[in-house]
Amino acid sequence: MLRTVSIVPTILTDNKVDYRKQVERINVFTRRVQIDVTDGVFAPAATLDVTNVWWPKNWDADLHLMAAKPSEHLDTILKLSPSLCILHAEAGEDLIPSFSALKDAGIKTGLALVASTFPGSVKRYIDVVDHVLIFAGQLGRQGSPADMMQMEKIPLIRNMKPEVEIGWDGGVNMSNVRALAHADLDIINVGSAISKSENPAAVFQQMVAEIDKNGVVI
To answer: 218 lies in a domain?
Structure first.
């Protein structure tokens, strides 16, 4: 039986004006959005600083923080109060204290894994989080091709923690979204395929319709 899969648009930019435009465009057709933020150290490309992001009150915002030391941004994150905060397993510090602080504030916790990170090596983090994000693109960039080999991590994570929400981020487009939807994921994050389209609402609806199709996946 297929799980219920949700398409979640992502926002990634280094420009305040563009950020507002993306928020306004996405707000027309969905309420769950992933906001990608880098610290300029963990990822080579810098985005808006976490102190400059915001979202409408009616959103369920997933904050994906690509930072070497997430704890340094914790006070800001707690004030923002996202629905979910995703930290990277590859960060240069122990994430358990940050996860504990987020949970105490009523914020769901997530763990992101880059291509080289084996789920079994970070089991102690997976055991305590609500969401695991399989990152299959390039940090801090939209429009990179998807590394579909990362799908092999899905059953490993599911066997480790069956109830955890599993997301995918990187290279999603109309040619692969259906295959991903049939791969036991819960969330499919979509960046440039939506944000760079002339009609993001139409692309979003097309992807929703595509993942709802039954039959052979090509």
So the answer is: no
